[in-house]
Amino acid sequence: SFRLNLTALSFLAVFVGMFLIYNTMLFTVIHRRKQLGILRCLGVTPKQIMSTALLEALTLGVLGALLGLALGIVLAQYTTQAVSKTISELYVFLKFDGVTLQPFLLLKAFGFGMLATLAATAVPAFEAASTSAATAVRRSSLESRAGKWAPRFTGLGLAWLFIAFLFYLLSENFWGGLMVALSVGFAAICFTPSLSLWLTQRLSPLSRKYAGQPGLLATRGIRAALSRTAVAIAALMLSLAMLLGMRLMITSFRATIEAWVNHILEGDVYLSASGIATAKWQAKIAPELIAELTQHPEVEAIDLYGVTEFSYRGRPIYLIAISAEVVQERLHFLFSKNEGRENWPRVRAGEVIISETFARRFRKSGGDTLVLATARGPRAFAIADVFIDYSFEQGQVMMDHTTYENNWGPSRANNLGLFLKPGADAKTYIANLRRALAGRYAVRIVSNRELRAEVRRIFDQSFALTNVMQVLTAIVAFVGIISAIMSLLMERTRELGILRAVGMSLAQLRRMVLLESGLMGAIAGAIALPTGSLFALVLVYVINLRTFDWTIALQWEPLAYMQTLGLAVLTALLAAIYPLLRLQKIPIAGAMREE
Fold first, then answer.
1. CA distance 216 to 54
2. Cα(first)–Cα(last) distance of the chain, in Å?
């Protein structure tokens, strides 16, 4: 599951990076359209022009891939350590001895970088080769075609949404869920040109009213250079949508975990067996310690929690032995069918309950029969109900200790939950218990508050790598919009020179560029909000469900939407700073001169 999710995030990051490659190569083609037209007039064939463009991209791709490999090796030192720490906390102890360089993996990454470069360059290279000599010298020909193609892209976006729906219906695995997410992303990209045109038309009167002529020119500038602005908007939009979708998913997951923890961690003190065992659940608490704790006057009840690694239909699961009588009175398990109070007498009588992950993976439900291999041979157990749990994604079968002992031999406890009598001070009891057990038993003693904090820490640690991937994706999108604005200014040098010559001041020119950049960011943010919401739905109800079989209650976070929109505008405005500095150095006469 870790490998699949990290691979999916890597693919999405590279997908956003391909926009940057596309932007760069399209700019080189547009910037040299007149040169290309002259070359076509001199007899250079379209095939030669396309080969030149691809070779240039391939050269840049080789340099970029080599730098990417070097940076990847450096980042792997951090990421591998973070992942191994999380796996050690949740599953099995891993000792991190450093990153091992694998030539095949490096070669695969390099080859994927080359493939992404060529794929992102294909359209600009085709554009360079297919343009006739007569139209190559006219920038307007490209933009008129971009405007005509916008409705067709909208139709293509609807087709991608339909494809996403088909993948959702016809697939049940992780990769099908990933294809749903990618199809949604492609749909949002295809909708971007038409939405950009529509939004700029609606914003044009407001821009003119509050910013004057520079505001009107800013909205027209976005529409006039749609082939460039739409790509930059789409790259920023996709990055922001990913950030919003991941944030909503993580927020929802955290809220779900918090609610679950509040129901199942209601003891005052928790003890867990510790040791140097490789597997997390091999260490057990000594029966003598349990007997000693039972005699403590402050202790009212003890829940014995025992975990046994097991196999069902060739797949790993866990058998969980609990003190059903204690759980019935003091914990509040969440069940799929009912409140659960009537389930515990059935569990005490020999029936079992199964986790939601087990039920989904093996298609079982309450009322079914479960056949398990016991010490006395196969035996059928009645399933009382399905309970909600997030501690094991492999699936678990829970039963009373008596049921376990009757079928698999002596039960054991890995964890203890102590319920103190009313009036007992948990903090004082823990301090005294630690002193009393020091040097005698290898156990870890924590309070209810400490254990809940530990759950939150592990949760945040599990998503630390996801946050890194999000930051890297945002940086790529930021660089992309800087390059787009720089490209637009360079392409419109003569236009800007004419505006200065007819009386536009440098302050008005700055205002126009800032407005244009800010509007591009606002449009990207506006499209990112519904796209990010769709991503969140796919992550929660498709990808997460198919990967871990966990049901998460989606939480809509208004602050996340406001921050996403604000981040979009801020990113675009920051991206305009360097182009604005370059703008001051443009000489009017030199800008208007044309060969």
1. 38
2. 60
For 128, the token pair is 């360079």
Which residue type is seen at 285? I
CB 160 within 8 A of CB 240: no
Tally the C-alpha atoms within 13 A of residue 439's C-alpha that lie toward its C-beta. Answer: 2
Question: At CB < 8 A and 24+ separation, what contacts does 564-567 make?
Answer: 564/240, 564/243, 564/244, 564/525, 564/528, 564/529, 564/532, 565/522, 565/525, 565/526, 565/528, 565/529, 566/525, 567/240, 567/243, 567/525
Residue the block writes with tokens 């906390």: 89
pLDDT at 142 over 60: no
CA atoms within 13 A on the CB side of 310: 23
Residues 6+ apart with CB under 8 A from 40: 46, 49, 131, 132, 133, 136
- Please tell me the distance from the alpha carbon of residue 167 to that of residue 183, in angstroms, as a whole number: 9
* CB neighbour burial string for 545-582, b if at least 16 within 10 angstroms, e if fewer: bbbbbbbbebbebeebbebbbebbbebbeebbeebbee
The whole-angstrom separation of Cα 227 and Cα 214 is 21
Model confidence over 385-431: pLDDT tens digits?
A: 999 888 887 889 999 999 999 999 888 888 999 999 998 888 999 99
Q: How far apart are CA 317 and CA 526, in angstroms?
A: 45
Contact 364, 354 (CB under 8 A): yes
Residues 332 and 266 sit within 8 Å (Cβ to Cβ): yes
Residue 129, token pair as written in the block: 């080769």
Any idea of the CA torsion for 563, 565, 569, 572, to the nearest 10 degrees? 100
Beta 352-355 vs 396-400: how paired, if at all? Answer: antiparallel
Assigned token pair, 569: 């505008």
278 band by pLDDT with thresholds 50, 70 and 90: very low
d(CA 310, CA 361) in angstroms, rounded, equals 15
